Amino acid sequence: MSISENTAAIDACTALCTAYGALADAGKADDFARLYVEDGVFDRMGQLIVGHAAIREVIAGRPPGTWSKHVCSNIRITVDADGRNASGEVDLDMQRGIAGSDEVQRLRGIYHDRYTLTADGWRIQLRKIVLVPS
Q: Which of 37, 47, 76, 112 has the maximal Cβ count within 10 Å?
């Protein structure tokens, strides 16, 4: 793999990371689910959410008035030697709540990711969140 191919892969995976938070925060469930491969997995603290339909429900199934703000930083992507797969880690600082309520939940963690190059471009194969103490 050339340096430019490696850089393009890193850029594409980084774009997935930033789109993930923006789409979740905007409530765009269909676009959010399409960041994953069809049989992708979101491991939410041991709860395995598998496939587009289930991943879509992570956003679409939120109670009315739910809001969130994902701040993803320190994105670290490593492309595998085959050039078709990659791994990554992303630091997360997230706040969420219900409109009209003063209660805000803050979560900090690290996303551990696997990415795959598909016919439609790079997609998330697996995203696992591990919370870290605040």
A: 37
